[in-house]
Amino acid sequence: MTSVLLGDAHGISVVDFKPFLDGSAKQDVANAILDSFKRVGFVYLINHGIPEEQIQGMFDWSKRFFAQPMEVKQQAPHPPSGTHHRGYSAPGQEKVVQHVYDDNELKDVRAKAPDVKESFECGWEDNAGMPNIWLPDGILPGFKEACTEFYWTCHETELQVLRAITIGLGIGEDYLVKYHHGHDNQLRLLHYPSVPAAQLKDEKITRIGAHSDFGSITLLLQDDAGGLEIEDPNNPGEFKSAPPVAGALAVNAGDLMMRWSNDVLRSTVHRVRAPPNAKTIDGMVPDRYSIPYFCSPKLTAVVECLPGTYTAGEPPKYHPISAGEYILRRLASNY
Questions:
Q1: How far is CA 307 from CA 171, 286, 295, in A?
Q2: How many angstroms separate the CA atoms of 200 and 195, rounded?
Q3: Domain boundaries, position 62
Q4: Which terminal CB of the chain, N or C, has fewer other CB atoms within 10 Å?
Q5: Which parts of the sequence belong to the Fe2OG dioxygenase domain (predicted)?
Q6: Domain CATH number, residue 34
């Protein structure tokens, strides 16, 4: 495993994914990934298969989109419904909140420290149940095509990571792949505007509050600004930096994967704060850009604990559940 394990970033393993992709050391890579997921719920992958030029191109498109005037971006508006994650959300519009279902309580929580970020979200172009919301034709030509191409490029890497997970668990390589056709994934472009460092430190505003992801896995590309933090699995409530690693794709397990794996894999709470030792300009924390790709199984899939994650003496902790029922319930409570 030492040849594929390249290092450690604050407890998160940095793994060379190339020997998995070329087949030269699949088991070693799978074991290294699974070990990191078991310990901290995150892993960094080097040589992950997403072309660097395509990544830089997508970040360029993201910056061009967010640089548009507000009245232009608002022509692709995110619907009021928390279950329709498509289109543009302005800074302060969205507040990540978990397990709060009372409308009045939600309003109070969101008013205390708004999430100062803006986002654009898209999914499978032919999803009639959750159609994409694009800018009108003629505005930022090429943006739609770049997003849809990148969406499917990320899906190919998603499938490889799922194969690594199942190999690490000692079950069939395509056991999870068969449930993930890419039709229920979500590509999100995120921009965290420059904000006063003092307000971030005092939590008068947040970039994104503490939360866990609800799907199978999340692929995350980020710039070098920093600020991502993960909760210490051994010390709940304490967070540590998950610093950007040059050339790496960060991957984390979601709540559904934790349930699917009978809690063998961790779904770790994470957040975005002011980067440690951030270089401020006139008291302002610099902008941050990131691109998460949220991966979910087809909504008709029945999620029940994976083979090998339970025994007669240690039975499954969870009853089978429809992926659609689980995900839609979580979508409604996280916006």
A1: 7, 46, 21
A2: 8
A3: 5-333
A4: N
A5: 183-297
A6: 2.60.120.330
